[in-house]
UniProtKB/TrEMBL annotation:
Protein name: RNA polymerase-associated protein RapA
Top-tier EC class: hydrolase
CDD domains: DEXDc_RapA, SF2_C_SNF
Molecular function terms from GO: ATP binding; helicase activity; hydrolase activity
Catalytic activity, EC: 3.6.4.-
Gene3D superfamilies: P-loop containing nucleotide triphosphate hydrolases, Tandem AAA-ATPase domain
Residues covered by the Helicase C-terminal domain: 406-585
Source domain of life: Bacteria
Keywords annotated in UniProt: ATP-binding, Coiled coil, Helicase, Hydrolase, Nucleotide-binding
Designated gene of the protein: rapA_3
Length: 946
């Protein structure tokens, strides 16, 4: 085994742990190297944009749908995490909470906790003052929950707040936007990262709303913004001015701009039509009419709209799904007659809790009077028993039987396109899952089916889970979270052995199935964002084949037909290269609200004419929302020329590869110096390490590690962390180190071949600058005996060579000390120059903000002047009016003129106040930038390279 010295170990430990400026590729390298993500240059570029200024209050990342804003935000979050800035809040739609938790855990190795009413109230009962005060875990919650807990959220000094689907807050400037207003107050002064593909949908004021969430000191008030940027004659000038104001905060990349790096495949749709049996249609009509009743005793009144929506979904899923739910309704009514209040069991519908979370306020409910209601309850109970008996008698579902031919057709098409014979079947009901399992098992698919739902308590899943744990008991794969590990076990089984995955919405969250290219929407959600999420499990980065999407349609149901037309033609979800565009998906605001709108049509329309009329209205509304004028404005204000983007991304790609390669080399060298050996045949990134009778293979490339069953080598691995601590605390007296280049064929360095027997002295210092944050720089000072100049890259290379300590260090020379001082001074000057740039950017922002406020004051004065002029005109033309009336008019004009005089006097005072406020803000910036520098000497060695 080759030998290395403590000086080399410390050198690479310093490089690995150095707190570089976070806005540089090298600063991000540590975070990037330790994540399980295929990084694309636009994602790194976006993360650097969000991190670029330590003074910034945040950024808006507005990449088109499908470009990985989650990855971009994850990189920013990982960078904060690595800097020990771990007060991080994630505000996301309720439906995406689990997906975010999974992504953070599996891709970024960062633990998180979903905070919701249940565990929040439990924490309060256990005496916690503020359940948001969580250490070393990212806090994830929904918009409504964060808004309701405004005081608790405001009380935490968050290092970073990430808001996904931030377009939900774009109308915050409107007085009625309660959720947005609360969140803006709660997050004021905190650094924020907003994510949305649709920052501008209907009105330029939406940009004002989103930017005001990030930073209150960008634009003046809403009225001034409207006058300056909305009510204008020259849109081209307006767009250019807005672009300049927004370029520090907003970044947007389009899918067409990244096709060099991201390979997109197409979606191909297959429609499977079916006709329900007479009994199925009778059951549908019975339950539909029941749900339209004026009063329903079986449903909790405060949640009737929501539960009706769920029941309609289950009714459309299968007779088995609605049968079990009818039984739950019956049990609830039977309990009522006995004076027992039973919970309605809706566990069959996996996402019911999320729907509840999205519901801002409960509907009004009337107090119950059992004696008064007994007759109505009894009548309703008899009706439900009749429906239940009918449902129980239905054993044949037309849609299910059609699944067999749909699968056959789908597999044929997929295999023709080069895909594997694998299919994901999505349903909205767990009972339908069971029915499909039995149906498919009886028709040739036995033993090739796996399940995914919210619990996975079935026997097949339990067996798969046990086998998976046994396979991975020693390789570090098991996380300890049953939910996450169960999902991983099922996906692995589906990838390696099974042919069909039957999943509820739980399967649409946080899993990657790009090895499968056939999706069957057995039940079709009404929420287009849900459908996009489903298809996105397979139609995503890494998918090599065109994706076939099979949808089912009941041709006898007029509402079903119109819903499908809407999803297919208006939202364009099922075909094409990219799926639905951001303009279209963003037009629906919250998907749950859109679902409720469609549910209302099913609920309230009793004949085909009413259904067609209501869907025509809905389609017309959507057309108005997909505003071509706003699309053009967004392109002018937020998008850059393709050539400009291409050049920037090319530079970012090269810098990212170089930065990652450099960091990976440091980590590998550090690992080798602790006894790891490259795997034979020589592999640059795989290492065998044995300790205390246990051996393992480590791999710095995560994909290869997964493929070969290796442990992914990361800086945060406990073993590496232990060695880093030891290296940083080991004493380093001066020494002479001999590096062996001649006998190290795998380390051939051309510079050393042209400069044989190089000798000299190396001094290593660390400059720490603490201001708004902390950044560190290594200062290399090398003086050679023959005067050869040696740069940092050559030091990196020769520090990799096997070496031995052969004696004490030569005394430091005046030349070395002078060169060291100059190096430190040069670095301090560069830091100052960079800080000056940040300072000037912030000053420019604040100056523009102040000018906006002054413009608002001038506007008020001008408007008052116009009012006086108009009243004088009326007065002059009113000579035929009675004297008393004219005197009143004149008095009114005089009062307005007095008010104008007062406003003119106050104008200068208020402008001075604005300037003073501006100066105060700039003073705050100065104090944040007025940091301190400290130089720490790490080591001095004499060296000879033989």
């Amino acid at each position: 085994m080759e030998s290395y010295t403590p000086y080399q170990t410390r050198y690479f430990a310093e490089q690995i742990l150095l707190k570089r400026p976070q806005s540089s590729i090298d600063g991000l390298a540590s975070a990037m190297s330790g994540v399980k993500v295929d990084l694309n240059p636009h994602q790194v570029d976006a993360a650097l944009f969000a991190l670029k200024s330590p003074l910034s209050s945040g950024a808006l990342l507005a990449d088109e749908v499908g470009l990985g804003k989650t990855i971009e935000a994850g990189l920013v979050l990982a960078q904060c995490w690595s800097e020990r800035k771990r007060r991080i809040l994630l505000i996301v739609p309720a439906a995406l909470r689990t997906q975010w938790r999974t992504e953070l855990d599996e891709k970024f190795f960062i633990k998180s906790r979903i905070l919701e009413s249940k565990n929040y109230n439990k924490a309060k009962k256990e005496g916690e003052l503020n359940p948001f005060d969580i250490k070393d875990e990212v806090v994830i919650c929904s918009f409504n929950f964060a808004s309701q807990k405004e005081i608790d959220v405001k009380a935490i000094s968050w290092d970073l707040v990430i808001i996904d689907e931030a377009h939900r807050l774009r109308n915050v400037y409107k007085s009625g936007n309660v959720t947005g207003t609360r969140l803006r107050r709660a997050l004021s002064g905190k650094r924020k990262l907003l994510l949305t593909a649709t920052p501008l949908q209907n009105n330029l004021m939406e940009l004002f709303g989103l930017v005001s969430i990030i930073d209150e000191h960008v634009f003046g008030d809403a009225r001034t913004f409207r006058d300056m940027y909305v009510s204008v004659n020259n849109e081209e000038v307006r767009n250019h001015a807005l672009k300049q104001r927004l370029k520090q905060f907003c970044k947007r990349t389009l899918r067409k701009q990244v096709t060099e790096y991201v390979n997109y495949t197409s979606r191909i749709a297959i429609l499977q039509e079916y006709t329900p049996t007479a009994d199925e249609e009778t059951l549908y009509n019975y339950v539909s009419d029941y749900l339209r009743s004026d009063k329903l005793y079986a449903l909790p009144q405060g949640q009737r709209t929501l539960i009706t929506l769920v029941l309609r979904k289950l009714l459309a899923s299968s007779s088995f799904a609605i049968s079990g739910t009818l039984n739950s309704l019956i049990e609830r009514l039977e309990g009522k007659l006995k004076g027992i209040e039973r919970e309605l069991n809706l566990d069959d519908y996996d996402t019911y809790d999320e729907l509840l979370e999205e519901q801002e306020d409960s509907e009004d409910s009337e107090p119950s009077d059992l004696e008064k209601d007994r007759a109505g309850i009894t009548e309703e109970l008899e009706e439900l028993r009749k429906f239940y008996e009918l449902a129980q008698g239905i054993t044949y579902n037309a849609k299910g039987e059609n699944l067999l031919s749909a699968l056959k057709q789908g597999f044929e098409k997929t295999e023709m396109l080069g895909g594997k014979r694998k299919a994901v079947i999505f349903t909205e009901s767990r009972r339908t899952q069971e029915y499909l399992l039995n149906l498919l098992s009886d028709n040739g698919y036995k033993d090739s089916i796996v399940f995914l739902n919210g619990s996975n308590n079935d026997e097949i899943s339990k067996r798969i889970y046990a086998e998976w744990k046994e396979r991975h008991k020693n390789d570090g794969t098991i996380s300890g979270s049953r939910q996450a590990d169960m999902k991983a076990a099922v996906v692995e089984e589906f990838r390696d052995r099974a042919g069909i995955l039957i999943g509820t919405e739980a399967a649409a969250e946080g899993i990657n199935l790009q090895f499968c290219s056939l999706i069957v929407n057995y039940d079709l959600p009404w929420n287009p964002q849900r459908i996009e999420q489903r298809i996105g499990r397979c139609h995503r980065y890494g998918q090599k084949n065109d994706v076939v999407v099979v949808n089912f349609l009941n041709r006898k149901n007029a509402a079903d037909v119109r819903v499908y037309e809407l999803l297919d033609q208006k939202f364009r979800l099922f075909s094409g290269l990219f799926g639905s565009s951001d303009e279209v998906l963003g037009s629906i605001e919250a998907g749950v609200d859109f679902e409720k709108r469609i549910a209302a049509i099913y609920q309230n329309c009793k004949n085909q004419e009413q259904i067609q009329e209501q869907f025509d209205l809905l389609q017309e509304e959507l057309s108005e929302r997909i505003n071509e004028k706003m699309t053009a404005a967004r392109q002018s204000i937020l998008e850059n020329f393709d050539e400009e983007v291409a050049a920037r991304l090319k530079g970012c790609q090269e810098a990212t590869l170089a930065g990652l390669d450099k960091f990976s080399r440091w980590l590998c060298n550090f690992f080798i110096m602790h006894g790891a050996e490259r795997v034979e045949p020589l592999d640059q990134w795989r290492f065998a390490y044995a300790s205390e009778g246990h051996s393992a293979t480590y791999n710095i490339q995560w994909k290869d590690a997964e493929r070969q069953g290796d442990i992914f080598l990361r800086r945060d691995d406990p073993l590496v962390q232990k060695w880093l601590e030891q290296a940083m605390s080991a004493p380093l007296p001066g020494a002479t180190v001999r590096f062996n280049h001649t006998n190290s064929p795998e380390h051939k360095i051309s510079f050393l071949e042209s400069h044989p027997n190089l000798r000299g002295t190396l001094s290593l210092d660390k400059l720490s600058y603490t201001g708004f944050g902390t950044e560190e720089h290594l200062i290399f000072t090398v003086v050679t005996e023959d005067g050869t100049e040696v740069d940092e890259d050559i030091v990196n290379r020769f520090m990799e060579l096997p070496a031995t300590v052969i004696g004490g260090c030569e005394p430091e020379t005046a030349e070395l000390n002078e060169k060291r001082r100059a190096g430190i001074a040069l670095r301090q000057a560069k830091i100052e120059e960079e800080n000056k740039k940040y300072f000037l950017e912030e000053c420019a922002k604040l100056d523009a903000y102040s000018e906006d406020l002054k413009e608002g004051l001038q506007r008020e004065l001008k408007e008052l002047g116009k009012e006086i002029t108009e009243k004088k005109r009326i007065f002059k033309s009113s000579t035929d009016r009675p004297l008393a009336e004219m005197l009143d008019m004149k008095e009114g004009i005089n009062r307005l003129e007095e008010r104008r005089k007062k406003m003119r006097r106050e104008l200068y005072e208020r402008e001075d106040e604005i300037d003073s406020a501006n100066e105060r803000l700039q003073d705050e910036i100065r104090s944040k930038l007025a940091g301190t520098s400290k130089a720490e000497h790490i080591m001095t060695i004499s060296f000879e390279i033989v």
